Amino acid sequence: METRTRFTDIINSERPVLVDFFAEWCGPCKTMAPILNQVKQALTDKVTILKVDVDKNPEAARAYNVQGVPTLILFKEGAVKWRQSGVLGAAELQQVINRYS
To answer: Pick from 23, 39, 63, 90: most CB atoms within 10 A?
Structure first.
């Protein structure tokens, strides 16, 4: 329960929060890791990036209807502003995040 409360507190932020729903066994998820690091370095304080392992947090995956991994969901003030499944490039992700910053 505490983890869910903390997750809710984080996604309710005024700053955009990009959540990467992933799994350890997922090849494309491994491809996303350095891309997310690149985005974080480029946008530093404009975005919070969270990684949620769907195998360890199945309730979070169910709550947001995550059917496949990786699935990226951008939250702002608790609302889903954007979502996409699959690998996305750093430049595309930065454009999406900047749109909601």
So the answer is: 39
| Domain definitions of the chain by residue range | 2-99
The correct answer on CATH 3.60.10.10 for the domain covering 2-99 is: no
**pLDDT value at 66 more than 60:** yes
Please choose, from the candidates 45, 42, 47, the residue with its C-alpha nearest in 3D space to the C-alpha of residue 89: 42
pTM, full prediction: 0.93
Q: What is the pLDDT of residues 21-39, one digit of tens each?
A: 999 999 999 999 999 999 9
**Active-site residue, selected from the candidate residues 26, 42, 50, 87:** 26
> Is 99 a catalytic site residue?
no
| 40 labelled catalytic | no
As a residue count, the chain comes to: 101
| Residue 59 DSSP code | H
